[in-house]
Write a structure and sequence with these properties.
Layout lengths: L1 H13 L15 H6 L4 H25 L8 H23 L1 H7 L10 H9 L6 H31 L1 E5 L2 E4 L1 H7 L10 H33 L1
Antiparallel strand pairs: 1-2
């Protein structure tokens, strides 16, 4: 019985990375995804913020789901999320001022991120704290991984570097020199972001559809 529960929770986690990836499948949270993915550093910062806010908001909403009146549940969820975002802002401003400045207005906009409010309403308000935390971690992992991969591709193609964290910059301009090419600012533009995101979305959806087809085929053979 416990093994079945573990498998169920594992599937609950993985769905946020593959079948229900918030960026590549549901296409939620597009504003920060496109805006802060010009550098890996800013993608990591936004990912950390979303992991904290999404996990804690799902946990709190799940804990209070039975005592919050149905008519005011959305305002209550927003207050919870806004409080958590404020905590993240204050912590970043105090300990990571450069990151706080880099993320700018997109950090407070996490309050109205569709991923966070959507998971609170669609999942955490109907499930146990453990399942809600696992769901949040999966969704946050899917969001963060997408953001990082998108940032790696865009920064490399746009400037020939990968900025991991502040002064830790990997210079890959030698690759362009060897290929007699040069980085292009196109990939750092919104249009470039949409192009790269579209290719990533096509890849993850093709993988998900192929995996689903194989599972259905195996079930048919088993019968």
């Amino acid at each position: 019985m416990s093994e079945m529960k573990e498998q169920s929770q594992w599937k609950n986690f993985l769905k946020g990375i593959f079948s229900e990836n918030p960026n590549l499948v549901a296409f939620l949270g597009m504003c920060p995804t496109l805006a802060v993915s010009t550098k890996v550093e800013s993608a990591l910062g936004m990912g950390i913020a979303v992991v904290f806010v999404l996990t804690m908001s799902n946990l709190i909403v799940s804990l209070i789901r039975k005592i919050v009146p149905n008519d005011i549940r959305i305002p209550v969820y927003i207050v919870v999320i806004a409080t958590l975002v404020t905590i993240v802002e204050m912590m970043m401003a105090a300990y990571l001022p450069e990151m706080y400045t880099t993320l700018g207005v997109f950090l407070p906009l996490v309050v109205v991120n569709c991923i966070i409010l959507g998971r609170a309403e669609a999942y955490a308000s109907k499930n146990t704290p453990l399942s809600s935390v696992v769901d949040a971690l999966g969704m946050a992992a899917g969001f963060t991984l997408t953001l990082i991969v998108l940032a790696i591709i865009r920064e490399f193609l746009g400037s020939g570097t990968i900025t991991i964290w502040q002064s830790f910059v990997i210079d890959l301009s030698g690759v362009y020199t060897a290929l007699r090419l040069s980085p292009t600012q196109f990939f750092l533009s919104p249009v470039g972001a949409f192009l790269v995101l579209g290719l990533l979305a096509g890849g993850i959806n093709a993988y998900t559809m192929d995996r689903s087809a194989k599972i259905a085929k195996n079930k048919a053979v088993a019968k």
